[in-house]
Amino acid sequence: MTVLVTGGAGYIGSHMVWRLIDGGDDVVVLDRLSTGFRWAVAPEAVFVEGDVGDEALVGRLISEHGIDSIIHFAGSIVVPESVADPLGYYLNNTVKSRALIDAAVKGGVENFIFSSTAAVYGDAGTEPVVETAPTFPLSPYGRSKLMTELMLQDSAAAHDFRYVALRYFNVAGADPKGRTGQSTKGATHLIKVASETALGKRDKIEILGTDYDTPDGTCVRDYIHVSDLANAHADALSYLKAGGTSLAANCGYGHGYSVREVVDAVKRVSGIDFTVVEGPRRAGDVPAVVADSALARAKFGWKPIHDDLDACVSTALAWEEALSRRNQRD
Ligand SMILES: NC(=O)c1ccc[n+]([C@@H]2O[C@H](COP(=O)([O-])OP(=O)(O)OC[C@H]3O[C@@H](n4cnc5c(N)ncnc54)[C@H](O)[C@@H]3O)[C@@H](O)[C@H]2O)c1
Ligand SMILES: O=c1ccn([C@@H]2O[C@H](COP(=O)(O)OP(=O)(O)O[C@H]3O[C@H](CO)[C@@H](O)[C@H](O)[C@H]3O)[C@@H](O)[C@H]2O)c(=O)[nH]1
């Protein structure tokens, strides 16, 4: 049987494809290459360029490749962009996920893993948040993902179909073997932006908001290494295949770092004292959100092995250097 990975040419999806290939699975990637890269897809995977909203295409892939599981990463991911373009986010993240779930149900795909987000909680504070906490997303991005969770819940109740929605906290770092990393053009993610600044690709980094009600006035997030996140998907897939029931589970480490702490970590690990300026708050940002991940550990035996901010930053910097070499070659 084969796993369909949507968004497999993107940052997290490309790590997942390697994780599946390393585990001996057959993989088909569906990606429209809006923010992903064809070269980021492991050569062992079948690559199909197309849109997850194309139900006929997905239906064909399911039957032609004998797909029994879908891991759905494809989507639009930038919180402030979702504030500026809410309908674009509801289309790509909610409407097209509906089409994909429909194709999965009609095609008899039983296992579905969805990239959800800590953004579904809204401002949860600096104490670890559990999955049963109220969901009050503060951005269209968070709402677009929460709506997809609700569609999955209703579809699982009505059909022979089970899902795990993994609520990722802030994903960072790169494959320790250097095979892939975050390559997004014009990235807005903190560790990526700070790594680019350390390597001189930007002349400064701006801290977006210093007047939050947090210990040092900057936002607090729980940064999870992308390889631990890929392992969580593999564990969740084994859980579903063993008959596990549908659920939503947090993926994070349970420690929050402020923006200032992250910037300091990038300076420490790179050994470069780059320029940092302070600016206003960014639209859609929540002050703090940190994961309680006891459920993922208990339900699918997830055991993170990269829980170390400096190690996360170090792989992000190594990938940034590899990207510079690639760009010089191309
Ligand atoms: N990066 C994070 O910190 C983070 C945190 C929480 C959740 N997520 C979720 O994880 C998923 C992957 O995020 P990422 O960081 O790898 O982003 P990314 O932009 O690198 O990857 C997304 C991929 O999906 C593809 N894509 C987008 N819309 C598509 C469509 N309609 N049809 C086919 N392909 C499409 C893009 O080309 C890209 O390759 C997203 O759903 C995102 O919301 C990410
Ligand atoms: O140049 C920068 C970039 C970011 N930040 C701040 O750093 C924090 C983290 O921002 P970012 O790395 O952009 O992540 P989030 O906005 O928290 O969102 C990420 O993490 C969410 C889960 O928490 C996911 O759902 C989203 O897809 C993903 O983009 C925020 O306070 C930003 O304001 C800065 O101060 N300067």
From TrEMBL:
Cofactor(s) required for function per UniProt: NAD(+)
Top-level division of the source organism's lineage: Bacteria
Ranges of residues in domain NAD-dependent epimerase/dehydratase: 3-251
Record field: catalytic activity: UDP-alpha-D-glucose = UDP-alpha-D-galactose
EC class (word): isomerase
Keywords: Carbohydrate metabolism, Isomerase, NAD
Keyword Signal: no
Entry EC no(s): 5.1.3.2
InterPro entries cross-referenced by the UniProt entry: Epimerase_deHydtase, NAD(P)-bd_dom_sf, UDP_G4E
Coiled-coil segments on the chain, per record: none
An example Gene Ontology molecular-function term: UDP-glucose 4-epimerase activity
Pathway the protein acts in: Carbohydrate metabolism; galactose metabolism
SUPFAM superfamilies per record: NAD(P)-binding Rossmann-fold domains (SSF51735)
Family from the record: Belongs to the NAD(P)-dependent epimerase/dehydratase family.
Quaternary structure (record): Homodimer.
NCBIfam families cross-referenced by the UniProt entry: galE
Protein name: UDP-glucose 4-epimerase
Organism: Kaistia dalseonensis
